Amino acid sequence: MGRHSDHLVEGTNPGLNVLVHEPASPSALRPILLLHGFASSARLNWEDSGWIRALTDAGRKVVTLDLPGHGSSTAPEEMDSYSPSRIRADLLQILLDAHIHPLADGQPGSGVDIIGYSLGSRLAWEFGATQPELVHRMVLGGPGSGDPLAAFDLAAAQRFLTDGSPIADESTSSLLRMARLVPTNDVFALLTMVEAIKREPFVPRDAIPHMPLLLVAGDKDERAQTIPELAELSGHAEILWLPGRTHTNAVTSRTFKSAAINFLAA
């Protein structure tokens, strides 16, 4: 297929690790922006699971970033850096710096497609709703109409990290355990993101994207059981359930990859 290459995007927020992954052969197809989940990274969510290779093999340029406090991005002290609204502004600047043209400008391959997972799906939903002139289609993996990070018991998590006090809320305990699984994660930066998200909780009906959506989740994913509510709000959504998959392992599904590539090619 030829050798794939990647390069840093210049001009973006210097604290964010942003890479452009080029397809094996020159292509006029629309680029794809990948948004990873909480306590993950572009490498863990998309590269190690084979997504970047599958998309570039399909002729797509792929833009990835590590969210603030994740992966190779810096962990700012200012809480505002972690807020969804600030991240959406950073995403817009990233696309402009990557020379993504609005859909209405008539250029071949203009605009961008987005694939998000978990927190990345929440960010994609809101970005698509607020930037419809840039976003063509989106695939949202592991989404839900609720917001587990907004319900996160921040005080209990901080007590646990300080003195080992047990966490009563199972969702909080599970999210903190996941955050600590990756040795390079800055757990305190991730808790700052949680606090920022609690100030801007996800309310999907407040900003609804109207481009075509593919909503994908494992049928064992308890966080994604409200997918039909998102589909109803959208009015332009298809749903794909992955048999036997959970929130943790749905992203590795070959069926998921194939469905996303086919959906975005329409």
UniProtKB/TrEMBL annotation:
Xref: InterPro entries: AB_hydrolase_1, AB_hydrolase_fold, AB_hydrolase_sf
Give the stretches traversing the membrane: none
User: Which molecular-function annotations from GO does this UniProt entry contain?
Assistant: hydrolase activity
Q: Which domain of life is it from?
A: Bacteria
Keywords, A to Z? Answer: Hydrolase
Pfam families given in the database record? Abhydrolase_1 (PF00561)
Domain AB hydrolase-1: where? 31-155
Protein name, as recorded: Alpha/beta fold hydrolase
Species of origin: Arthrobacter vasquezii
